[in-house]
Write a structure and sequence with these properties.
The chain is of the alpha+beta class. A hairpin with a 2-residue loop joins strand 4 (90-99) and strand 5. The protein has helices spanning 2-8, 27-48, 129-134, 136-141, 177-182, 189-211, 215-225, 273-276, 284-290, 293-309, 311-316, 322-341, 346-371, 378-394, 402-419, 421-436, 440-456, 458-463, 469-488, 492-516, 523-539; strands spanning 56-57, 70-76, 79-87, 90-99, 102-110, 120-121, 126-127, 153-157, 165-172, 242-243, 250-252, 255-256, 259-260. The chain has 3 domains: 56-225, no CATH class; 240-410, no CATH class; 420-545, no CATH class. Strands 1, 2, 3, 4, 5, 8 and 9 form a 7-stranded antiparallel sheet that branches. A two-stranded antiparallel ribbon has the order 6-7.
């Protein structure tokens, strides 16, 4: 055999370069190759799946600036990680992921939200009533989404074939991922708003889970994030949007300590305690009228982007509409152009102020109910958040004397009230004498009218500091107790005690109203005079003729 093979070899070597010989694999080889390729693809897929940090962490991310607010980490050509410092020891983490046709902004909740599936009726395709009541925030984000732009929602996602986990996410259309990787993320409204909106939505979900009585979600959340509460002082309103006042170009949507990147806002000034009680709607219009054109451009642009970032909730609570937002954006843009060109922008200024005033006016009732604990609602909390942000924006060293004059006015009012204590004391003594001379039936009827007055005017009375909820509750209780001890189980000592307590509360209320009438040209004064006239009318009735018996 060896000889036969040797005979087949040429006596002279082959000429030219060696070449590879290719042949088609047989059927068995093809099947084996397919198995190998599938295994390699699965391994590669698992390897290329994005590594995403939990929504909140206590660990300082790598390369995070020592005094910065944001940190950006390009993980791959399709993934940008964003970390936000929400307080000294806590961080919010999210990612931008590039997909065909859109960019996904998301934050990872792992298996914390597994319980949300129990609240979704897949047959009816609605959130169950008891679940909506218990978890209003989670319900608003889960099962109702349409995957459209700015639509924040909760959903399970399995990236690149990996097991599904829960994410709070949104889709961004019409933007380029390269702008994220090679530009300043904070100069883009869509990207910056996604960071803000996802962060606030996540904070709301976190708080809702922690205040519920369900134990397992809390355990999973603590295991995932390492925290069991978020600093109550956290306010994303500190990340302020701004435009260049000369060009109108968006330059930043983040700030630290009241200063926007690229634009210096005036330094903050402390809000006087006597001004904290007022919603901004009471003086917004007057303040904006005093701003110079360039200051008004900075102010209105900063405020516009805050409204833009809160648009989902503004619409949800009926405070604002998309049409109004477009109108506001148009007027803000025209305002900047006119001011830069040195043209009169009075019309645009009025339109902008009127639009913003309409928002603050609609928020007024839920704001006051939340502020003075009349009624606690999500609507009220949101109103408090936006009202507080606008206050921080107003109370700065703008080139205007309005704030200084306003503080001076409040100080003068306070001094005048203190100086008029003698009048208050005299009138109060007269009033006490009238109440003490009332018969039992007259006492009951008069105080029922006072109770009705305080109850029906409660929100405004509380707002101006004339009443506290505890006063109203105590008045009603003492009035009822005096009736009980006089009519059902007469005890002179108990009856006298509770009657005196009832009269004391009404006297304190009257004195507060009387002091309020000493103010100058002020909304508080007008309201105090109105209430004072009602009380005086009641007081001047001939109570000696009241003989009817009242029943509770």
């Amino acid at each position: 055999m060896k000889k036969k093979l040797m005979d087949l070899m040429p006596e002279t070597p082959f000429e030219g370069e060696p070449m590879a010989v290719t042949r088609e694999p047989n059927d068995m080889e093809k099947s084996l190759l397919q198995i190998i390729n599938n295994t390699n693809n699965e391994t590669e897929t698992m390897r290329e799946a994005p590594i995403i940090l939990p929504v909140f962490t206590t660990s300082v991310p790598l390369d995070f600036p020592s005094e910065g607010t944001f940190a950006f980490n390009k993980k791959t050509h399709k993934q940008l990680e964003v970390t936000v410092r929400i307080n000294e020891h806590q961080y919010f983490n999210m990612n931008f992921l590039n997909h065909d046709g859109y960019i996904m902004a998301c934050c990872r909740w792992a298996h914390v939200l597994d319980f949300a599936e129990n609240g979704y009726d897949r047959y009816e395709q609605i959130i169950k009533k008891h679940f909506r009541k218990k978890y209003p925030v989670i319900s608003s984000l889960y099962g109702q989404h349409t995957d459209t732009a700015e639509d924040i929602h909760i959903s399970p996602i399995g990236f690149e074939g990996n097991p599904k986990e829960w994410y709070i996410s949104m889709r961004i259309y019409g933007e380029k991922f390269d702008d994220l990787l090679h530009g300043n993320l904070l100069m883009n409204v869509a990207f910056a708003s996604a960071v803000s909106n996802l962060c606030m939505a996540s904070v709301d979900v976190f708080k809702e889970i922690m205040k519920s009585d369900a134990k397992q979600p809390k355990i999973l959340l603590k295991e995932l994030t390492g925290i069991d509460k978020i600093d109550k002082n956290f306010d994303f309103g500190n990340y302020l949007d701004a435009r260049n006042p000369e060009t109108g170009e968006i330059i930043s949507t983040a700030r630290e300590d009241g200063k926007a990147s690229g634009v210096e806002l005036p330094e903050e000034i402390e809000i006087p305690q006597n001004m904290e009680m007022y919603p901004v709607s009471t003086y917004l219009f007057f303040f904006t009228k005093t701003l110079k054109d360039m200051d008004f451009v900075i102010f209105s642009n900063a405020l516009y982007f805050e409204i833009y970032g809160m648009m989902r909730k503004l619409k949800e609570y009926g405070f604002f509409t998309e049409e109004k937002l477009e109108e506001l954006e148009k007027n803000v843009s025209i305002l900047g152009d006119k001011v830069i060109a040195g043209e009169d922008a009075g019309t645009e200024r009025l339109r902008i102020t009127t639009t913003v005033y309409s928002i603050t006016s609609k928020m007024r009732t839920p704001l006051l109910e939340e502020k003075y604990h009349v009624k606690e609602t999500e609507e009220g909390k949101f109103a408090m958040e936006l009202d507080g942000y606008i206050k921080k924006l107003i109370w700065r060293k703008w080139d205007t004397t309005y704030l200084e004059e306003r503080m001076k006015q409040e100080d003068e009012v306070t001094a005048k009230v203190e100086a008029d204590q003698a009048l208050v004391k005299k009138k109060s003594a007269e009033w006490k004498a009238i109440m003490e001379g009332m018969s039992f039936n007259a006492f009951l009827l008069f105080h029922s009218k006072m109770n009705e007055l305080m109850k029906t005017k409660k929100a405004t009375l509380v707002k101006y500091g004339f009443l506290a909820s505890e006063m109203l509750d105590n008045h009603k209780r003492y009035w009822a107790s005096s009736y009980y001890w006089h009519n059902k189980k007469y005890d002179e000592y108990e009856y006298t005690t509770f009657r005196k307590q009832t009269e004391i509360i009404v006297t304190i209320f009257y004195e507060g109203i009387l002091r309020g009438t000493q103010y100058g040209n002020h909304p508080r004064t007008k309201y105090a005079l109105k209430i004072h006239s009602i009380i005086e009318e009641l007081m001047n009735k001939d109570w000696s003729k009241v003989n009817e018996t009242l029943k509770l």
